[in-house]
Amino acid sequence: MEGEAGERIDLTLLRRHLGAAFLAVLLCAAGLPLSAPPAAAATTIDSERRTRAHVALEAVLALCLHRPEWQTEAFVRLDPARLPEGESRELYTSLVPEYAFSRFSLSTEQETYFGWMSGKWKEDPARARLLPLLRRLALQGETVAAGMPDPEAHRQLEAHLVVLDQAFLETERKHLETEIRRAEAKGDQDAVQALLAAYASLR
To answer: How is the chain classified by DSSP, letter by letter?
Structure first.
C-alpha cells in the first residue's frame, strides 16, 4: 500500500505493532483501503492464536484505560479463567486489583491515572514488559473513542463484553461435546450424564 507521495506503508509491520482492529480504525480514518494481509502476516496472526475473544478483550481494556471510571462495572464481569490466554490477559490480571482505577488517588505525584500506573510499572520488572501493550491499548482507546459520545462508546464496551462471554461459552460447549462423544464411545453413562449436566449449566 502507498501513502502520500508514493511512500510505501508496510501493513504487515503495522498490524504486528498496532493490532489488526486498531489498524483498521486508522486506515478508515485516513480513507485508505483495508487490503487483505499478505500470507506472512496471516501466518503471524495464526501463530499468536488471535481470536475474536483476543480482539474483544483488547477493546475492553482499551476503553477502560480511556474511561477508567468504567472499570468497576466492566472488570467485575471479567473472570481470568474465562479470558483468552496471552499478554492481554496478563495485562488484565496486572491491573486488578493493585492498579485498578479505584486505587488511584488524585493526590499522587502523577496527575493522571495512566501516568501513575505506567510510572509504577517501569519500576516493576514483572510488569515492565507489558508497558508496550499498555501504551498501545491506551492509544487505541483514545483513538476509537475520539469524538464519540460516551453512551456510544459505552455501548461498544458492552458489546465487547458480550463477545467475550459468548466466545468462552462456545469454547466450553465444543470441549464438552467432544468429551460427551468420548464418554458415549466408551459406554460410560455416568460420565455422559455428568457432562450433559455441565453442558446444560453453561450460561
So the answer is: -B-GGG-B--HHHHHHHH-HHHHHHHHHHHT---PPPPHHHHHHHHHTT--HHHHHHHHHHHHHHHSGGGHHHHHTT--GGGSPSSHHHHHHHHHTTTTSGGG--TTSSSSSHHHHHHHHHHT-HHHHTTHHHHHHHHHHHHHHHTT--HHHHHHHHHHHHHHHHHHHHHHHHHHHHHHHHHHHHHT-HHHHHHHHHHHHH--
pLDDT (tens digit per residue) in 156-180: 999 999 999 999 999 999 999 999 9
Residue 79 lies in a domain: no
User: Does residue 141 sit within a domain?
Assistant: no
Decide if 1 is inside a domain. yes
Please write the tens of the pLDDT for every residue from 89-125.
Answer: 999 999 998 898 888 876 556 568 888 888 889 999 8
Write down the pTM of the prediction: 0.71
User: What total of structural domains would you count in the chain?
Assistant: 1
Domain residues for the domain of 16 are 1-48
